Amino acid sequence: MIITAQWLNEYLDRPLEVDALIDALAGAGFGCESREDLPGGDTRLDIEITSNRGDCVSVVGLAREAAAVTGRQLRLPQLSGAIPQSASAASVENIEHDLCPYYSARVIRGVRVGPSPDWLRQRIESIGQRSVSNVVDITNFILFELGQPLHAFDLAKLRGLKVVVRRARTGETMIAIDGSKLMLDESMLAIADGQRPVALAGVMGGLETEVSSTTTDIVLEAASFSGASVRTTSRRLKLMSPSSYRFERGVHPATVAAAADRAAAMIAEICGGSWDGNATVAAAPMPEQPVVTMRCERCRQVAGIDIDAGEMVSVLARLGLNPELSGDNSRIECTIAPHRLDLTREIDLIEEVVRVYGLDRIAPRERIEIDVVGLQESVQRRRTVEQALTASGFFEVVTFSFLPMKDAEAFLHPGFELLTLQDDRRRAEPALQASVLPGLLRCRKRNQDLGQKEMRLFEKAACFATIDGKKVEQVMLGLCLDATDRQQGLRAMRSALDAVATALLGPAGSVRVAAEDVSWFEPGAGAVVSIGDTRLGIMGLLSSRQQAGFDLETPLIVAELNFDALLGLERAEKAVETLSTYPSIQRDLSLVVEEAVPWTQIESGVETLRLANLESIRFVGAYRGKPIEKGRKSVTLRLTFRDSSRTLRHDEVDPQIASVVAEMGRRVGAVLRE
Questions:
Q1: Spatial separation of the C-alpha atoms in residues 434 and 451, rounded to whole Å
Q2: Distance between CA 337 and CA 242 in Å, rounded?
Q3: Are residues 390 and 355 in the same domain?
C-alpha cells in the first residue's frame, strides 16, 4: 500500500513525524518496505498489508491504526459544501445478490470533465498514480482514501439508460479501458446496460462507456462484490487492478454509501455537476453487525501479562469496535464495525488488544510452561484405523482430488451429481472426486506399470457431490487388494474390516456383510458393510468392465466406507468376567442351504432364539460339491454352551440344537446334513 505521510496526517488531530509514523505503523503490525522523499517535503511510504486486513488498504484505515497506537484522534473525512439539486434517473437491476450484495448508482448531471485542481492532481501523483481527469481522479482519490472502489459511466453511452448486474454470457466480449479485448463466460459477474457488458464487476470498466472530455452526465457506480467472484474473474483474465485488489480482501456493503456520497459531492463541487443527494440501490438485506465477546481473564492468559480491563476497553474503542464492559469487569462485548471483516472470534479481539497495547511491553519468559495433554479422541481413533489396516498389510496412499470425467463418472453413486471446476488449468481433470475408489485404482495402475504385484492399498479422503441440489462433502475410506484367488480375496477384505472394527470398537465390534448388487461389482459378488445398525458402505469384487476401464490386469476386491460414520461409532465396553472352571459343550451343525443365503442370516437367526447357556456362535466353513446338489451349499457352524456354576449335560443341550435346526428350516429352508 503506497501512502504519503502528509496525506495520512490529514486524518489525525496531531500530525506525526515520518519516523514516528513508521514506528507507529510497525508497532501495529504494518511494516514499512521503503520510503522516498518527494519534492515539497512529503515522504512516500510503501506499507506492507497482510491479506486479512482489507480495511487498511486505504489511507484512512492506516490512519486509524496510527491513531490507536499513538493515542491520537482519528478525523474522518466529511461531505463538503451544499449538494446542487438535479433530477436523477437511473434504472438499476441486480439479479445476482449472492455475488453483489449491494449496488448503487448516483446520476450527476452537467459535469465538466477536464484537468484536476492542483491539490487533487498532486495527491494522486504523490502515490505514483497518473492524473487522468477530474472525474476519474476523484474516484481514484476515494479508492485510496477510503478503500472503496468506484466507477463512473458516461450516462449517454449506456444503451437503454439502465444498469444490470448479471452474469456474463459465454461468448460475450468487452473491450476494457486498457484496450484489451476480453472473452467472457458465465463464471464472471458483469455490469451491463440494456444490451451488452460495460464493465467487469470489481475488476475493470469498459472502454465504450468510459468518461471522456465530451461527457456531461455520469452514473457513479458504488458497490460491494463477492471477493471470490472478483478473484476468479481477475485470475482467469489475468487482469489485475487496484479495485480488484481491494474487493478480493473484502468490502462490506455498509461502508459503500458514505464513500459514494463523498465522491458524488466532490464531483458536484469540483466538476460543476448537480446531484439530488439520492441513489438508486439494488441490494440484498444489509447483514447485521456481529457481536463478539472477549473474556478479560482469557486475554491476560494469552498475553501472559496483567492488562487492566479499562486498558482493554480503551484499545478496542480506539479501533472503533464499540466495546462494552460487563458490570463485574470480566467480559467485554464488541459490536464489530463493518470495516473489520477479519474479527469473528474471541482470539481476534485478544490479538487486537495485545498488538495495540504493545508487544514490546510483554517481557519474554525464561521458561515456557506447557500443559501436556493426550491426543484428541478423534485423532486417536483415526490412527487406530490406520494402524489396523497397516497391520493387515495395507499401504496408505494419497491421491489427487480432481479426476477426468470418465473416471469420476465410473464410480458415481445413484442420486449423486458431480461437482466440476470450470478452469482452463483443470481442463483434463475437471471433476472433484465423488468416490475415493477412482484415485485408488489409478494409483494401483501406476504401480502395476512399475511392476508391483500383490498390493493392498487404502486411502481416506474428502469426496464431493451434489445431492438433491445440495453440495455435500464427506470423508470416505477406500480399500483395494489384488485377488488372484477371488474367494481368498473376499475373505482377506472381510478380515481387514473385522480388524478395523475390533481395534476401534473392541471385542464387541463385529462387521456384518449382506449381499447386494452394486453396478461396480461382478453380479453376486457385492455386499453392504454394516456394524450394528449402522450401514457404513460396500465391498465386493470389481467388475470386469471397471477393471478394463482402468486397464488393470489383476482382479481387485475393493471397499468404500463412510469414514466419519465409522469414527462416530461408540465403543461398547465388554464386561470382564471370571473364567469358568466348568467345561463347555460344543456342537457342530452342518446345514444345507441355498447358495444365496449369507452367513449373517444364519448367525442372526440363531441369536434371535436366545438359547440358554449359549456362549458363542462361530463359522467353521462351507462346502460345495457332491453329494450336495448344485445351487446349494453346506454351512458348518459351531455352537458353544457353558454353565458357569456347574457342568452341563449333553441331554440339556439336545433340545437347543433341535430348536436351531427347526428355526433355520423355517427361516432359510435349511436341512441338517447327514
A1: 29
A2: 23
A3: no
Residues 60, 186, single domain; the answer is no
SS (H, E, C) 617-633: EEEEEEECCCCCCCCEE
Task: Kindly report the CATH number assigned to the domain that includes residue 161.
Answer: 3.50.40.10
Q: Are residues 638 and 666 in the same domain?
A: yes
Q: Running DSSP on this structure, what letter comes out for residue 359?
A: G
Residue 288 has what DSSP assignment? Answer: P
pLDDT, one tens digit per residue, over 596-648 is 888 888 988 998 999 999 999 999 989 998 899 988 999 999 999 999 889 99
Smallest CA-to-CA distance from 505 within 536, 526, 478, 482 is with 536
208-265: pLDDT as tens digits: 999 999 999 999 999 999 999 999 999 999 999 999 999 999 999 999 999 999 999 9
Q: Are strands 470-482 and 456-467 parallel, antiparallel or unpaired?
A: antiparallel
* Domain boundary residue, one of 359, 387, 405: 359
391, 400, 454: which is closest to 428 by C-alpha?
400
Record the pTM: 0.64
CA distances to 28, 72, 297, 330, 347 from 308, in Å = 20, 20, 10, 11, 17
Assess whether 268 and 345 both reside in one domain. Answer: no
Whether 338 and 220 map to the same domain: the answer is: no
Pair 252, 350 in one domain: no
- The least confident of 39-53, 113-127, 525-539 is 525-539
What residue numbers bound the domain in which 627 lies? 585-672
- CATH code: domain of residue 635: 3.30.70.380
Note the pLDDT of residue 568.
87
